[in-house]
Amino acid sequence: MDENWLTVAQAGEDDHRYALALSNGAELQAQSANQRLLEDPAFMRTLATPSPDPAIRDDAVFERDLASTMTAPLSTRPPSPSTSSQCVICGDRLRAQRSFRAPCGDQYCHGCLRDLVQATISDESLYPVRCCGRPLVERDFLPLLPSALRTRFQIKSRELGTPAMSRVYCQNPICSAFLGSSEGSDGDMVCTACGTAVCPACKQIAHRREKCVENAAIQDLRALARDQQWQTCPGCHSIIELNYGCYHMTCRCLTQFCYVCAVPWKNCLCRQWDEGRLYITAQRRVEEEMGPRAVAAAPDIFQREVEARAEQLRSSHDCVRHSWRRRNGGARCEECSWYLRDYLLVCLHCGIAVCVRCSRNRLL
């Protein structure tokens, strides 16, 4: 086997491990010697000589094709046999019997599908399991999961499918099992795991023969929400705080509404953004792109870029369909707050910068 082509194959394996770590939020290792060698133009010119091993040559062509798709805007990738047979998360080539096709057309290998479901169990913002804003059909992907994970997801799905303000949990501190919804409940709810009875109205331990008073903690939370001018989602009644961006809110239950008045989006006459928050968003994004050293060295350029970005946000803040391009360099995902040291995906329209998982499975 030619040594150069062996290097290419080994670099491909290193890229695969790196992609899996990136999609799982694991710590990323430094580039291997093989990966650095593939970035050397002199070495790449040596690959022009045909490989004596056709199988290795085919793998090398695939790795180069995959690299070219990762540097192009995602929205401009043309449909092709190579793209349609790759996992959208890790980039692995897929066989029909080892893949899952989402309603949007993206394909997942079974490993990445399993990782997504596992992440959803611990991160409610990923529920319902979705890709490109379209929920995955449970009856289609559940049979592809290991039985233990499938059971855990089905149990958690019952909880996550219940509006947050209606969820009742066992008040035994060593149990805390989800008991169900308080809506339509006539009497105390009894935990089948430990036998603790809970009042569905105040969500505290049952208080027979005593008048129920609404949970003081809930009252305090609602008072704080009023004081801080937080909004309540009209869909699931979760309390939401606006940190940055426009007033177009998309809750984790997928309800879209106006943050000012809580009516369905674009069914009111409220302003669509807060000027102060919009300007802060522009500053943060430009600083992420330029880097703190560049900002300090060229404050005039930084300020001009901020003004230009703020003007862009005023016209494109309400992005209904993101169009992604890759931006190299370390930065923090604006959705999940994970720090990615190598690259993020940036929307060409609204400028939001996110990781691969959030671009596919969290945002609409």
From TrEMBL:
<dbReference type="InterPro" id="IPR044066">
    <property type="entry name" value="TRIAD_supradom"/>
</dbReference>
<dbReference type="GO" id="GO:0061630">
    <property type="term" value="F:ubiquitin protein ligase activity"/>
</dbReference>
<dbReference type="GO" id="GO:0016567">
    <property type="term" value="P:protein ubiquitination"/>
</dbReference>
<protein>
    <recommendedName>
        <fullName>RBR-type E3 ubiquitin transferase</fullName>
        <ecNumber>2.3.2.31</ecNumber>
    </recommendedName>
</protein>
<dbReference type="InterPro" id="IPR013083">
    <property type="entry name" value="Znf_RING/FYVE/PHD"/>
</dbReference>
<keyword id="KW-0863">Zinc-finger</keyword>
<keyword id="KW-0862">Zinc</keyword>
<feature type="domain" description="RING-type">
    <location>
        <begin position="83"/>
        <end position="274"/>
    </location>
</feature>
<dbReference type="InterPro" id="IPR031127">
    <property type="entry name" value="E3_UB_ligase_RBR"/>
</dbReference>
<dbReference type="InterPro" id="IPR002867">
    <property type="entry name" value="IBR_dom"/>
</dbReference>
<keyword id="KW-0808">Transferase</keyword>
<keyword id="KW-0479">Metal-binding</keyword>
<dbReference type="Pfam" id="PF01485">
    <property type="entry name" value="IBR"/>
</dbReference>
<keyword id="KW-0677">Repeat</keyword>
<keyword id="KW-0833">Ubl conjugation pathway</keyword>
<dbReference type="GO" id="GO:0008270">
    <property type="term" value="F:zinc ion binding"/>
</dbReference>
